[in-house]
Amino acid sequence: MSLYDGQDKTPLYDAIVRYANENKISFHTPGHKHGKGISKSFRQFVGEKVFRLDLSVMSEVDSLHEPSTVIKEAQVLAAKAYGADYSFFLVNGTTGGNQAMILSVCDPGDKIIIPRNAHKSVISAVILAGAEPVYIMPKIDETSDLILNLTPDQVDEACRRHPDAKAVLVTSPTYFGLTADLEAIAEIVHQHDKMLLVDEAHGAHLHFHPAFPKSAIDSGADMCVQSTHKHLAALSQGSMLHVKGVRVDILRLKTTLQMLQTTSPSYIILGSLDISRYQMVHGGEMALEEVIKICEEARGEINKIPGLSCLTREQVKKLPGIDLDVTKLTVSTKGLSYSGYDMAKILNSEYGIQTEMSDFQNILLFVSIGNTAKDLKKFVAALKKIVVDYKDLFLNQKKRKRIVFPTFVPRKELNPREALTKLTRKIPFKRSVGKVCAEIICPYPPGIPVLCPGEVVTQEIYNYLMSVLDSGARINGQSDGRLQTIKVLEDTPASSTGEKKLFAIG
Length: 506
Ligand SMILES: Cc1ncc(COP(=O)(O)O)c(C=O)c1O
Hints:
By secondary structure, this protein is an alpha/beta fold. About 35% of the residues lie in helices and about 15% in strands. The protein has three domains: about 200 residues, 3-Layer(aba) Sandwich (Aspartate Aminotransferase, domain 2), CATH 3.40.640.10; about 120 residues, Alpha-Beta Complex (Aspartate Aminotransferase, domain 1); about 80 residues, Orn/Lys/Arg decarboxylase, C-terminal domain (Ornithine Decarboxylase, Chain A, domain 4, Alpha-Beta Complex). The radius of gyration is 24 Å and the shape is globular.
């Protein structure tokens, strides 16, 4: 019997289509009643069928919170396809999945080891759980200025120093596609009798092609969360949480998911998760083979363009314990007179090419089964033309300043959740050095917090954030969008005034 037995079915997707075709009279939510009440312009643009799939919890389409028929079946098929013991469909992206993973493992006060460059959903989960974060700072690559990934040695050292930590969370791949050696890390974490949780938001495709770095579940992780919507073809917000092995308390995880997920999940998103799994099982490897091929061809072409370079797997593999998902194209503009921001702007306005993100010296492209060789040819041709057309131009010199993520973990005065219960005040950002931050300060993308509640603002962090603002990037999470002011802790402890400000995030 193969793992793919029964995988020719799409039980959940079939059920919602079947229901939509029955044209029943709706006296239930959603209020648009199969689209009949939807605005005309909306319907004209997207057509009417999609609204007929936007259903409510009914016996014909099962319930996400108590799955017993088609959702249960679809989740079992997903688990088999991914080599997991259990899979759970998520409708609030990997954000909700990271929160569920951490809340199902950590009690208030429990330590959890996490990389300092974790996504803000991990930090918010730590705050919600009342856990104690122990940060490890991954190294930064001198050439590309990219934040690398955790190495097995770093994880081992952290586990030794914190034998009481409950779990280790690793982000792999990172936003830029850099993966950690999860097999070695899983072995170390388990030797230390802890759980390995993986934020695999950027890795839903890895399991389906042998040329990719191994997926988290295949490497021995206990739990992972993947944004099926980011690199496969599910709709936005569609993610999956996978579990393998005996360390995870499944009942607690299910209860946590019920607490975090909406009681009105989108059946269109859920159906798209079922279909995405089917797509990968049937022809996924071949489709991904083509994605790898077009990415590697484009990479080769870009590396021939004077002034530009595109990160290669060979380059990355020279760094111990790090590998690369080649479907991420990181193109450095370091050899040119303009920044990644400038390059992204020109690509967008002059060539109609939208990148995933840009920073002061890179642009980042996500390539998936939705892209074609033609897309990449157009991209490479645009790059070739831009380097010629803009050869003598010195755009936005201000943005050329080197901006490197702070390389140390800020001093923590208070646990982040505790910091949110204290009295705060707003002060001008320029006077914040030495004060204890009371909010999350997070440039987006990539959504990696630079300051968390309870951490001390240093001159290096201040300078970094000012450079980020200067470059035109967005910073979010804080109460003042332009960061002219910042919330810091009052020097007087809240307990002495009796006032508490729980969850005072912006
Ligand atoms: C590493 C990482 N984890 C988690 C998330 C959150 O994923 P989602 O958008 O599916 O909620 C992101 C989003 O960019 C991310 O980059």
